[in-house]
Task: structure prediction
Amino acid sequence: MVVDSELHALADEALMLAYAGGQAAAFECLYDRHSQRLWRYLFRNTGNHALADDLGQEVWFAVVDAAPAYEVKAKFTTWLFTVAHYKLVDHWRGHKPQLSLNEDTPEAMSLAETLFANSGFEPEKLQGRKDLARALLDALAELPQDQRTAFLLQAEGDMSVADIAAATDVPQETAKTRLRYARAKLRQALEVLA
Result:
């Protein structure tokens, strides 16, 4: 059994196995590491705070339910965001997506920071971070659902093309094409600010 103070040094997969083995603190560590990214992914796909909260709870309940049978077959984050993707799909089957990401909230406005943090992109050269974030959110909301999902799985879930293909149950080339189109449309929408 791993001591609680050592849990933070463990990889996600080891934490999930520790949780499956009865260490509740391992779940807390996983939740602390991934709850914000997961919520942003859900929020950016729904545009609704309450719905993102509800779907997030469903995802974490699914993690709890799956713990006894959990096997390491992929990165934990790939598995987690795949679960989140399917929760969104289940939700959309019963509801038409109503995406409106134009909220002036810290969560909504942090998308530009999230996406451009390690890219060398310098948003301070634009009119302002808020304008960039708003334009990005508007462009993201205009993407077809399959392209938005692929883009957000990569941006928030840090998933590879192969992981996105597996999570969305499409061929790898389809996932790659969706990402390429999404990036091109987002880039085109943001060029007007440059």
User: Anything to note?
Assistant: The CA atoms of residues 59 and 83 lie 6 Å apart.
